[in-house]
TrEMBL record:
GO cellular component, one term: cytosol
The keyword Plastid is assigned to this record: no
InterPro entries linked: DNase_TatD-rel_CS, Metal_Hydrolase, TatD-like
The keyword Ribonucleoprotein belongs to this UniProt entry's keyword annotation: no
Entry binding sites for a divalent metal cation 2: H136, H160
Gene Ontology molecular function: any one: metal ion binding
Family: Belongs to the metallo-dependent hydrolases superfamily. TatD-type hydrolase family.
Protein name: Mg-dependent DNase
Pfam family, one: TatD_DNase
Keywords attached to this entry: Hydrolase, Metal-binding
Positions annotated to bind a divalent metal cation 1: H6, H8, E101, D210
CDD domains per record: TatD_DNAse
C-alpha cells in the first residue's frame, strides 16, 4: 500500500477523469492521498468535499506562497480574519489533517518578508491545534530552517518535493520534518538529491507525486498523476537497495504517523 502525501487532485486538470484516476490509484495500491491547501474559499471547500466523499483522501488548510499575489499589501491577520469561520469549520473535519502548503519560494515575485508573515500565520495555527505542516521550499532552505528552529513545530511536518543536500535533509529530520520524495529522484541529473535520499534513513521519508505537476523522467510535458507514485517508490527501492514491499510498508507507515492516521487502509 502506498500514500501520496502531496497531490493536487482537486485541480482543474483532473476535472475530466478524477473518479477514474482515483479508481486506478486504488487498483495499483495507492490507497491514501493528501490534497494540500493552496488558497482560501472554494479550493478548501472542494478538497474538503472530495475528502468527505472518498475514504482515503485527506486535505489540508493553507495558502501557498505562489498564491499570495492578491494580498501583497494587506497584512495576513487582516486577510485571514475574513476566513476565520471557514478555518474553524475545516479544522473540525476529521479529514483535515494538516496546515499548508506554506513556506518560502525565491523564484516568485512576492517578497520574502511577505512570505515569512504568511508562514508564521500557518505555524501559529499548527502549534495551537497540534497539526503537522506541509512545507514548500524553493532555494530558501537556510531561511526556512532558521524559522523552524526558532519555533519548532510541535506536530512536525513534511518538506514537500525535497531537493536539497544530505546536510539539509538531516537538519529537517532533526526538527521532526519528513522529506517528501517525488519525481525529482527519477532524473539521473538530480545527483545531489538522489545522494541525500540514499543516505537518509527510510524512517525519514514519505512519497509524493505533486500531480498534476512534476512529471517523472520519461513523461515530461504530460500531466503527472498519483497513479505514477508506484514509479517513485520503485526508484526509491533501487536507491536504497530494498524491495518495493519494504519501501511501501515503511513510507506508508511514516505517512500515517505524519498525519496522525491509523494504518487501516479504509479510513
Ligand atoms: Zn503542491
Amino acid at each position: 500500500m502506498l500514500f501520496d502525501t502531496h497531490c493536487h487532485l482537486d485541480f482543474d486538470e483532473f476535472d475530466g477523469d478524477r473518479a477514474a484516476v482515483w479508481q486506478s490509484c486504488r487498483d495499483s495500491g495507492v490507497v491514501k492521498l493528501m490534497i494540500p491547501g493552496v488558497t482560501p474559499g472554494n479550493q478548501w471547500d472542494r478538497s474538503g468535499r472530495l475528502a468527505e466523499q472518498e475514504p482515503g483522501i485527506y486535505y489540508s488548510l493553507g495558502v501557498h506562497p505562489c498564491w499570495l499575489t492578491p494580498w501583497h499589501n494587506t497584512p495576513v491577520g487582516q486577510v485571514m480574519a475574513g476566513w476565520s469561520a471557514d478555518i474553524d469549520r475545516h479544522l473540525q473535519s476529521p479529514q483535515c489533517r494538516a496546515l499548508g502548503e506554506t513556506g518560502l519560494d525565491k523564484r516568485i515575485e512576492t517578497s520574502l518578508a511577505v512570505q515569512v508573515d504568511w508562514f508564521e500565520w500557518h505555524l501559529t495555527l499548527a502549534q495551537q491545534h497540534r497539526r503537522p505542516l506541509i512545507l514548500h521550499c524553493v532555494h530558501a532552505h537556510a531561511e526556512l530552517l532558521a524559522l523552524l528552529k526558532r519555533n519548532k513545530p510541535v506536530a512536525g511536518g513534511v518538506v514537500h518535493a525535497f531537493n536539497g543536500s544530505y546536510d539539509i535533509a538531516r537538519e529537517y529530520w532533526s526538527l521532526g520534518i519528513y522529506l517528501g520524495i517525488g519525481g525529482t529522484i527519477t532524473y539521473a541529473r538530480a545527483n545531489k538529491t538522489r545522494n541525500a535520499v540514499q543516505r537518509m534513513p527510510l524512517e525519514a521519508l514519505v512519497l509524493e507525486t505533486d500531480a498534476p505537476d512534476m512529471p517523472l523522467q520519461g513523461r515530461q510535458g504530460q500531466r503527472n498523476s498519483p497513479v505514477f507514485l508506484t514509479d517513485v517508490a520503485t526508484c526509491l527501492a533501487q536507491l536504497h537497495n530494498q524491495s518495493l514491499a519494504v519501501i511501501a510498508q515503511q513510507t506508508y507507515s511514516n505517512s500515517c504517523r505524519l498525519f496522525g492516521l491509523t494504518e487501516n487502509h479504509n479510513r
